[in-house]
Structures are given as C-alpha cells and as structure tokens.
Amino acid sequence: MISVVGEPEPVTRPARETLLELRGLSVAYGDVRAVDNIDLTISAGEILGLAGESGCGKTTVANAVMQILRPPAHIAGGSILFRGEDLTALSAEGLRKHRWRNVSMVFQSAMSALNPVMRVGNQFVDMMRAHERIDKRRALARTGELLEIVGIDPRRIRAYPHELSGGMRQRVIIAMALALRPELVIMDEPTTALDVVVQREILQQVSDLQAELGFAVLFITHDLSLLFEFAERIAIMYAGEIVEEAPGGRLHRNARHPYTLGLMRSFPPLTGPIVRMTGIPGSPPDLAAPPAGCRFHPRCPHCAAGDTELFALQTAVRPTLEEIAPGHQVACHLVERDG
Amino acid sequence: MHAADDVTFVLRPGTITALVGESGSGKSTVARLLARLYQPTAGQVLFDGVDVAGARRRRDLLRYRSQVQMIFQDPFGSLNPVKTIRHHLARPLRIHGRVERGGVEARVQELLETVGLVPAEKYAAKFPHELSGGQRQRVAIARALAVEPAVLVADEPTSMLDVSIRVGILNLMLDLKERERLAFLYVTHDLASARYVADTVLVMYAGQIVEQGAAEQVLQRPLHPYTQLLLASVPDPAVTERAPITARKGLAAAAVDPPPGCRFVERCPLRIPVCSERTPELVEASPGQSARCHVTAPSPARREDLHVEHVQ
Predict the structure, then answer these.
(1) Which of A301, A307, B54, B214 is deepest in the core (most CB within 10 A)?
(2) pLDDT tens digit string along B180-212?
(3) Considering only CA atoms, which of A324, A273, A257, A319 is closest in space to residue A293?
(4) Interface residues from chain A to B (CB-CB < 8 Å)
C-alpha cells in the first residue's frame, strides 16, 4: 500500500545517490521572482512531494527543471544539477536530448498535453523517434506494452484522445512519461482534474510502477493530505521559497512552520471529531512586492506587534532553513529561537 | 438523456444538505434545476408546499428567485469586471425592491459585514480584479443574501479557491445557517468538507441518489457500495492501514436510456444476480439512512425473497 504515515521510519536508509540538485535556484518573470533562492535535492528512486498554494512557484520549479520556461520567465540565479551536470549551461541540442530521456513530465491537463487530432499510438511513435532510431512497427509494439503497464487495453493505440475518459488520458500521459525509462518523472497536479476514485487508482498504479521501475518522482500538488500518503519526503513552498522540508511521516506528526500547520488545519478530517477549523487568514502575497522579513509574517498567528524584539526580526530579517532534526528543515524565526 | 432521474429530497431552514458525487453524476444539474436555470422534464420542485417548477409568470419567477439564490463555482466569472462591488450588491436590492431608495448604501455595507468583508466602505468601492478569489466568493455570497433568500444553492463554491481560504468560506456557510436560518444545498465532490458543514448528505451516482441520511451516519457507516468506494478513495493521513480498493473496473452506467437494474452494478463488488435485473429503490435501512442497494438495503419484498432462497 502507499501509506507512509504511521510506519516506523527505517533506522538505516540505504544511501542513495543524488539525482537532481537545485542550488540557490531563482526564477523570475521580468523582475518578479516567482522562485527565490531555493535548494532542493532528489535522490534516485525517491518520491519527493512539493506542496503549496497557487502562485507559490511550485509549477515554475517544475518548468525550470524541464527547462521549458517561456519568456519572460528566466533563470535569475543558481543552478540545476542533474547527475552533477548543470542544465542551465546545456546547449539546445543537449537539452533536447535531456528532456524526456532523463526527465519527463506529467501535466495537470491531459487533454491539452495530447494532440487531439492524432491517434494516441502515433504520438508515442513521434516521441520515441525524436530520441532514438526505431522503426514505426517496433515503436508501436512498445507503445502497446507501455499502455498495458498502465492498465489500458493495447488496442487503444488507435484511439484518438477524445475517445478516452479523463482517467485513461491521464494514464496515457503517464505511459508516455515512462516510455524512455527516465530517472526522474515530474508530476504536476497529475490527478487534480480527476475524481477521487480514479485519483486513487492512478496513484496506486504510479506507486506500483515506481517500486518496480525505480524512477524518482517530483510530485507537485496543493493537496497536502495526498502527499502524506504518497511521498517519502515533503517540501512546503510559500511565496517562492521553501519554508519547511521533512520526511512525510515526520512532517505529519511534527510540522513546525506556522504555514505548514495552517495548511494542515485547512483540510477537514474525514474521521474523528469535527472541530471548528481556522484555515489561514489573509491571502498569499503579491510577489511583485513581497513583505519584508518573513514572507508569511502578515498571515502568521505568531507575529504580533507586542513582542518587539521578535516582531522586529520577523518583519525585517528573512529566516533561513535550519535543520532541527535529521532531514527536517524549517525557515522560521520562532523555531530558531527555541534552538 | 436523464442527467438526474427521480431525485427526491427536502431542504429545511437552518440546515446544510450536501449533495456529493463524481463529475457527471448529475449533482450540478440538480442544483441548476433548483435555481430554475433548467426546467425539469418531469416532477415537481415544491417551495413552501407550492410547485414552482412550472412557474412562468415574471412575478412568480421573481418571487421564487428572491427565495432561492445560487452561488457558482467560479468567482472570477460570476462578477462583472467593470462594475464595483457596490454595484453588484445594490442591483438585486433595486430589482427586487428590497429597500427604500435611501437605504441602499446602508444595506450594501451591512451585507459586506455579514460576509466578513470589513471595512465595508473600502470593499464597496473596489472592482472585482482588486479582490482575491476568496473575497470574490464572499461578494457572490453577499449578493445572494441581498434579496433575503430562504435557500442558498452553492455549487462547488470552494473548489477554485486556495486551500487555506476554503475553510473560511465553509465557516461562513455555517455562520449563515445559524444566524440567518438559511437552508443550504452544498454541491461538492469533497466528502471531508461535506462532513465538516453538512447535517444531511445525499450521494449521487449516474443521475440517481444512491444514499441519503444524516451526514455522520452516511460518512462513517456508509451503506451503499459506491459511497464506501468514494470514502475509501479520499486521501486521509489519519488512515494508516488501508484496505485495497475492491471495486471492479468498469464504467459508470450511461445516463442515456439506462438499462434496468442498478446503475452501479458494473463496478460493484457486492453484486448479486437481481442487481442487473431490477432497479433498486431507495430503502430506509436504518433510522434516518436510506440507500439504493439490493444487498445492503434490501426492500421488504426483497428481504422476503432472500428469506425464501435461504429456506430453500
């Protein structure tokens, strides 16, 4: 099963090699920094969840890793290392080879990711032939196998996208993302447009495939409760920054950043007592003029003008990520204070 | 095409009724029927005991619409971008003649305060693009409240909002239910939010209500296998051990000329022969909880059949 919560954390984890490393990455749209100086590492075979609300920069991170940022978006600083090689320095041809072969992506809207006037099979053939020398017959045969592993009848090779249900289209996209056996698959809200039953079936399948094939996943969503079940490690983004990062189970039990806690209090529970919830007051900041100091301070329940020393810190100094336990980092003045 | 088929339920003042189901289940159709955006092909919509489904006269429609208001999913599409918030709230007051000419401004401010947009004068002067999604949804609610309705139909009012502000809208619904004694129909696919606000839950599948009852009963002890499947599918960190989902693969039944029998039969793990032959009725299987299922909520006649089979 895909549940991570509640399982004891392994005492010794096999050391896994670093697959992708973002170092001080900043991405700007014109002058607006949508992603501001973030560090993030994904190991081979790991499922990393990246959660945050719309506009926090999570999709921009995905687009930067895929190197599909469109002007005016551009990398404003830092590096993206894939197996040690800086993607920001790659040539156009180098990038063409990197995309899909090393890193593939599953987009939120399967309907706009597939070509509506082309049979599904031919879209696979095009993609395969862009990356390797393979004849059409063999490419189609492989497409059939790929569709089969995501639970679609291989005869659907001849279908047009509109002939498939939403869930099937999303499976087609996942099959396409796995076609070249990439080491990293980015999934950007892959199930948000789907019904819960279909969502669970697809996540189960991705989880099984991941265990079998060993690819790493960068899973982007606004739905934190999904990540608690699905991701090994979770990073929380707010206003272009990573504010907290921890193993899934640990974050569930010991989240420390007030924003993470606020997000967790925003999902009513399906079981247990029903208590009045608060959500988070206010709304995310305008990134063209982000608040000084901690970007969350205008919405933070622990930021009040009373405590002058702390208040001055919160409103003037940007907190940095500090490790408070192995693998658990938080960017919050309150946490730094208790040591 | 029967998008909603033989749907019967009651909305009471001071209660929230959640209508849940997957996309295409017909839940939005029901909401729109209630708001008189569509007309039913058969059946009645009774308001205070009077059938309003056939109302044609402008006066009757105006009266009905002032009692039953709707809030839509998309707060970006439901407000006019070139008009101020004041305009949006003053217009229904004038159309429905709710206040004296001089009282409009005071009522606009009062409405904004009711939905938590304070200071009201500041918000009244703003344009929709100056507000966040959550604030716009509050304006949409204030506009619906302007005509002092008895019923509010809210079709997925939080699904386009950021996670952290959804709870604020749900809390507002709870407050309005208490303070204004409103009857809500809350249409959603989010079962956890339904549990948070609703007194009663209706579960729709392929155009039919397959289960209904007190919210906590339906969501904690679901009878219908479809409700069970829905609940098992929701991500919930509190659940540590999850039984694998046992639903059969299969597509939702077609709402176009549905064949006789249960519409969930293709996906149902509990199916028995009768399920493909006879359409199950909504049967009250435990006090205050009904389901449309031959297995978990057999009708009295069916129970006798079972008994006979058992004896033989």
Answers:
(1) B214
(2) 999 999 999 999 999 999 999 999 998 899 999
(3) A319
(4) 1-3, 5-7, 53-54, 165, 195-197, 199-201, 204, 222-226, 228-230, 252, 262-263, 265-272, 274, 276-281, 283-284
